[in-house]
Design a protein that fits this description.
The structure is a single chain. The chain is built from 9 helices and 24 strands. The protein has an 8-stranded mixed β-sheet with strand order 7-23-24-22-21-18-19-20, sandwiched between helices. It has a 6-stranded mixed β-sheet with strand order 1-5-6-4-3-2, with no helix packed on it. Strands 9-8-12-13-14-15 form a 6-stranded mixed β-sheet, covered by helices on one side. α8 links the parallel β21 and β22. The chain is globular and about 65 Å long. It binds S-adenosylmethionine.
Length: 452
């Protein structure tokens, strides 16, 4: 039976799968429709709101059969905010979904059949994020600040977010009130007018130290001294205040120039007994509890020996290499952000780890030129995955053991497929729930060269 799908039409459907971003998948006739907040096994009345050539989007109008795995979201903004998208699943279902998506994506996109372990979850999967970037703007004469709606740049003026610590929600309210009192002009993305674009918060795991970055469109910011004074009066745990200037017409929040307004441009934190300095521009994992578990698994997969020469590619502030350093002969870290390399070098010094060196540059340029022959390689690339030149270099140098940490299973599948076709075995994969209440998946994979 062929049923014609109409925009704005109402249909009774059954959900048979979930997309990578946790939307329910149903069919009207043969035509796939994706619906937010629907779970596999549920039946519902939906309204079709958008039609593309091969698929469409619908809105849940009424649940006709509810899944036993459904949970009432604890967040009052969940329906409108794009920050979270799995809060309507109970936590075990979120973990099962991530394991299933990992295995499915590796199989379908990478043609990889390997052992995928259960997702490693959190005992309390809320209030875990140590970094928040909050855009501010103005609506109907009122200053608003919060997170964006899904697939939009419309700000949801949050009262409280349940993935940041409660004090960060409090700081957002503080800034809304202070910016209003000081009559500051908020940035308008459509006209590109206004001064304040947003505020970035980062804190140490024990919440004893916070860094706050005020993101403005111009370096001229006469109110900054008053803001710093009021901020540290109210929140004495703020140890670092930065002004970042971003005059560009772009979606990216941080601009190229920054200035320290108070304290130093670092906050201190520690992971697995090693102390780190993190500057506001450096990458640092957002969920420390899960990061420790992830790094422990990565070290186990690496099976480090005292004679090993280890490369930590995409090293950020050096966390993986420094965790490995005491167990091996030598560690070389590679990273393209200058501030992160400076942090990494300082971190090695502060922890008295002398067998480590860090190289500033792109992994695709540095790795093929390395004099040392690594026998263990950690790769932890950004979402776009690993450059083909890096994979070619692994194959050419016959690196025996690779531990791949990934925040995007699609690019992981692509990269593993290439290695698998070139004499490497994908031994096993463990997903970690680094970003509870969202569909994002972090994985660590053990890859071994097959002996000729
Ligand atoms: C996912 S982060 C991992 C950082 C670190 N391993 C950790 O666990 O905190 C990826 C890092 O790779 C860096 N990066 C991105 N592309 C790069 C490239 N082509 N060459 C070197 N570093 C790169 C980013 O600046 C970022 O610090």
């Amino acid at each position: 039976m062929i049923q014609v799908v109409e925009k704005n039409g109402y249909y009774e459907v059954e959900f048979t799968d979930l997309t990578h971003d946790a939307m329910g998948v149903c069919k009207v006739g043969d035509f796939p429709i994706f619906v937010k907040d629907a779970l596999k096994g549920e039946k519902a009345l939906i309204k079709v709101i958008k039609l593309n050539k091969n698929f469409g989007f619908g809105r849940l109008i009424e649940l006709l059969l509810e899944s036993p795995f459904r949970k009432i979201p604890i967040c009052e903004h969940y329906q409108e905010c794009g920050g979270c998208n799995t809060m309507h699943m109970n936590y075990q279902t979120q973990l099962d979904f991530k394991k299933y998506r990992t295995a499915e994506t590796l199989r379908k996109l990478g043609r990889i059949e390997t052992k995928v372990h259960d997702t490693v979850g959190m005992s309390n999967p809320y209030y875990y994020r140590n970094k928040a970037i909050i855009p501010f703007s103005e609506r109907n004469g009122k200053i608003i600040g919060g997170l964006y709606r899904a697939r939009s740049h419309e700000i949801v003026n949050i009262k409280r977010c349940h993935i940041f610590p409660k004090v960060v929600s409090d700081m957002v309210r503080f800034f809304r009130a202070l910016f209003t009192e000081l009559k500051l002009e908020m940035y308008d993305e459509t006209t590109h007018q206004g001064l304040v674009r947003g505020v970035m918060f980062r804190h140490s795991r024990d919440q004893a130290r916070f860094s706050v970055t005020l993101i403005t469109t111009s370096g001229r910011f006469p109110e900054r001294d008053e803001i710093v004074k009021r901020l540290i009066e109210r929140y004495p745990m703020v140890v670092s205040v930065i002004q970042n200037v971003n005059p560009d017409q772009t979606n990216v929040m941080l601009g190229a120039k920054s200035k320290v307004l108070y304290g130093k441009d670092v906050i201190e934190d520690s992971l697995l007994g090693i102390d780190y300095e993190v500057s506001h521009r450096s990458f640092y994992q957002v969920n420390p509890e899960q990061t420790e578990l992830l790094y422990k698994k990565a070290m186990k997969y690496a099976a480090l020996k005292p004679t090993d020469v280890v490369v930590d590619a995409y090293c950020g502030i050096g966390t993986i290499g420094l965790t490995a350093a005491s167990k091996v002969a030598e560690v070389i870290g590679i990273e393209e952000i200058k501030d992160a390399i400076k942090n990494a070098q300082q971190n090695a010094k502060n922890n008295n780890l002398k067998n480590v060196r860090f190289i500033l540059g792109k992994v695709e340029d540095v790795l093929p030129q390395l004099k040392e022959k690594p026998n263990v390689l950690f790769i932890d690339p950004p979402r776009k995955g690993v450059d083909k030149k890096v994979l070619e270099s692994i194959i050419k140098e016959k690196i025996p053991r690779v531990v791949y940490i990934s925040c995007n299973v699609s690019t992981l599948a692509r990269d593993l497929n290439f290695l698998q076709a070139n004499n490497y075995k994908i031994v096993e994969v463990t997903p970690f729930d680094m970003f509870p209440q969202t569909a994002h998946i972090e994985t660590v994979t053990l890859i071994e060269r097959i002996k000729e």
